[in-house]
Design brief:
Blueprint: H1 5-12, E1 16-21, H2 24-33, E2 37-40, H3 42-50, H4 60-73, E3 77-81, H5 89-102, E4 106-110, H6 129-142, E5 150-155, H7 158-176, E6 180-183, H8 189-197, E7 204-206, H9 218-224, E8 228-231, H10 234-253, H11 264-271, H12 273-283
Parallel strand pairs: 1-2, 1-8, 2-3, 3-4, 4-5, 5-6, 7-8
Helix pairs in contact: 4-5, 5-6, 6-7
Length: 288
Amino acid sequence: MANPVLRTKLDSGTFFVVPGIQDMIAAVVANKVGFDLVYGTGYWLTASAHGLPDAGIVTYTEMRERMATLVRTSNAAVIADGDTGYGGLLNVHHTVRGYEAAGVTAIQIEDQEFPKKCGHTPFRRVIPVEEMVEKIKVACAAREDKRNFLVIARTDARQSEGFDGAMRRIEAYARAGADVLFPEALESEEEMARACAAFDLPMMANMSNGGSSPVPVADVLAQIGYAFAIYPSLTSLAAAAAMEKALVDLKTKGIGQPEGLFSFSEFCSLIGFEDVWAFERQWGKRAD
C-alpha cells in the first residue's frame, strides 16, 4: 500500500513544499530536517549516479532501483519522477506497477516523446494529446492502491503550443483521471495563477532553480493557488556550490579543514554507523 500522507495533505488543502533528492546523502539530511514527503528527481538522480544529462539515457530498470533505494533510505514518502513511462502503453503499465511495488507514493508522467529531455532545456517535443490521455488511463488502471498511489500528469507543451495549448492538454489529462496536474515551465506568476484558477484538481509547481519559471517564496505559491511545490534542483545546486568552493580552496590555498563542514560524527550517526557499532559490541570477537 502507498503511504497515504500525500493524499491526506492534498485533502487538507494546506500548501506544502517537497525537496528534491539527488542521492542518499541528501535523503539522510532531509530525514534530519524532518520532511514527510520528498521528490525523487529524474534529472538529479541521473546526474548523481551516472554523471549524465536527463535526456532519456538512463533506463527504467536503473531508475526504479534508485527509487527503491530512496524509499528504503528516506523516512518520508516518495513522489517519483516516472519520465514518459519509458515507452508506450505497456511500458507505462509496467512502470507504474514497478514503482508502486518499490514503495513510492506517487508517479509523475509527462507528455514528451520518448526519450525525453529535462523540462527546462530546449528541443523538447510532445506526443499527441490523445496518446498521453491513453497513458494516463493506463497508469490509473495499473495501480493497485487506487486511493493513495497518485498519478501526476505533466505537460511540456508550454514552449511548443503556448499557454493555451498547455491548458487544453491539462484539461484532457484531468478528464482522463489524473490526480494531480503539472503544467511544466510556465513563464510567469500570472500564468501560474491562471492555470491554478482553471482547475479544481490539485496543481503542482516545479521550482527549478535556474529554469524557465520564476521561483517565488512558498507563501506566494500558496496564494497563487498551488497545492504544493517541488524543489528538484535545490539540494543539488547548493551541494555543488559548496563542493566547488571547498575544492578551489583546497587546490589554491591547501585548506583541507574549512569552517562550516557538516559534523563527521553526526553524519556517521545519520548514515547508520551506530547500528554497526552496536552489532560489533554484541557479536564482534573479543580479546581473551
